[in-house]
Amino acid sequence: MAITIWLTGLSGSGKSTLANALSERLKSRGVLCCVIDGDELRRGLCADLSYSREDRQEDIRRAANVSQLLNAAGVTVVAALISPYRDDCAMARAIIGSAAFFDVYLETSLQVCEQRNPKGLYRQARSGLIPKFTGISDHYEPPPHPYLQFDTHSRSVAECLTLMQDLLTQ
Ligand SMILES: Nc1ncnc2c1ncn2[C@@H]1O[C@H](COP(=O)(O)OP(=O)(O)OP(=O)(O)O)[C@@H](O)[C@H]1O
Ligand SMILES: [Mg+2]
User: Fold this and answer.
1) Dihedrals φ, ψ of 160, to 5°?
2) Per CATH, which fold does 4-108+140-168 belong to?
3) CA neighbor of 106 nearest in space, from 5, 32, 28, 27
4) What are the distances in angstroms from CA 130 to CA 34, 90, 120, 124, 168?
């Protein structure tokens, strides 16, 4: 059965990096796989949405429905979305179906994410240039019972993939 691996965590926690690494690993094993990345969605399918509470929900609703369609077609999905609100993650689980939904919480601290600052966004958020920035001016609700959770700080990408090994053999 094709599944959705749903990576959630703060900006800079490593979602895109690990999603791409996971996808490469799955493809090398002959698994049909698609990465659904929050940034890419915002450039296309969700380009009309803001970062308001309602629009973030709509963003997740669309991502979850695309994931469900892909899963139904036999494609494994690796989703890399901050998905900061519990209710929205619960909605994603309901749309995709609990049997196919595996949430992985990257519990990397705000301090580490801010130090990494891969896109330079934290500086802009701190100076008020980006309103409603998760972790700074908007909140992040950790998933209550994720399938897996770990900190990407002081861990290599390869070590993180090992932690997700179960998901590579579903
Ligand atoms: N073990 C690790 N896993 C993932 N990323 C890591 C790890 N160690 C260091 N990094 C670095 O942390 C940064 C994570 O950035 P990445 O773009 O993947 O975050 P993100 O969660 O997708 O952020 P955003 O929500 O802004 O898209 C990268 O620069 C990556 O090289
Ligand atoms: Mg990303």
Assistant:
1) -65, -40
2) Rossmann fold (3.40.50)
3) 5
4) 30, 27, 11, 6, 36
Known catalytic residue at 67 = no
Spot the catalytic one: 50, 83, 98, 154.
83
Note if the pTM is more than 0.85.
yes
pLDDT tens column, 12-40:
999 999 999 999 999 999 999 999 999 99
pLDDT on residue 23: 97
Ligand 1 site, residue 11, Cβ cutoff 6 A: yes
Q: Give the start-to-end residue ranges of the domains of the chain.
A: 4-108+140-168
Return the best residue to mutate from 10, 16, 17 for the ligand 1 pocket (most ligand atoms within 8 A of CB). 17
Between the CA of 104 and the centroid of ligand 1 the distance, in Å, is: 14
